[in-house]
Amino acid sequence: MDIGILTYYGVHNHGAVLQANGLQQVLRAMGHDVRFLSFERSYEYISEEQTKKYKLGLSSIPFYFKYMLEKGVGNILYNYKKRNTLKAFRVSSFNLDTAYDSFEGDAVVIGSDEVFSLEIGYNPMMYGYGLKAKRIAGYAGSFGPTTMHEIENKGKVESIRKGLDKFTAISVRDQNSQSIIKQLCNKEAPLVCDPVILYGYGKEMEEFKPTESGYIVVYAYDNRMNDPEEVEAVRAYAHAHGLKIYSVGYYHKWCDRCIDASPTELLGWIRNAELTVTDTFHGSIISIICNTPLAVKLRGNANKLAYLLSEYGLSDRIMETFSDLEQVASRRINFSKVNAILKEKREASKRYLISAIEG
Question: Mind listing the pLDDT tens digit for each residue in 262-283?
């Protein structure tokens, strides 16, 4: 079958790229021809100033000059290199030649990631509008931080409901998204695993092994985990255990090293770490599939991240505050049990994906 994927493949983080590639790899292993569908993203719900962060051009120069003054030259240089690293991976791995509204293949798979979120803007193609394929299937989509209350306030109840009614099959990756679809469409959207878990990246995580050892990985957006109390807690833990602190994928000048890694190299860095300290969804997912101990701080992403951890019996990895880091990190994880759950969820999710595409 000829399948197009609609997802946020161009976001400036490794998780977005890994989930997109994971879904592509699984579909290809099933024998399908796969391509990504290009689109112009809406930024209607953020300020014009914030938009310059996402839509790079001449108008972005003042924004990034101000950003440089606030964050420092090191941050700018790091993110410039990171942008090129992620772009190189997409260019080598993704077919992006087809616009979503010109694709006439057998099926479009919408997802994964926060394809239904209204945080930045309303993107009608993510709800099925303008698509010509015979089947529209949603796989592991998420509303992210968007709530039913926000959908109502933005006046998008009817447009999202009518769009989702176009789907021949729809699944989600968290309970918040499941609840919203139930309220909007009275549809039962099954919970499936994120494509990073679905694909597993077993081969890729073994392909790159750092020459260093004895380190912990900090994986957090560069505007987070900079609070002095949080920094001191991580440093105190590392010092007590004789470990270095490496920030991989994001810039944190307080870490011993900030490493610009490709998406698959990130897997190797986390796979060989003593501990991952993260406040992100995909930082947690990668740690889980790599069987690396993790300590997690919930922030605005609690509705999806807390559920993820509960799915794998890892709710005790949550830190209420960073003063809990030592206690959380000291708890042993039964990865045999975790891996059994991973296997079960992968098999169920693959069965759903086959059914959603083929009918």
Answer: 999 999 999 999 999 999 999 9
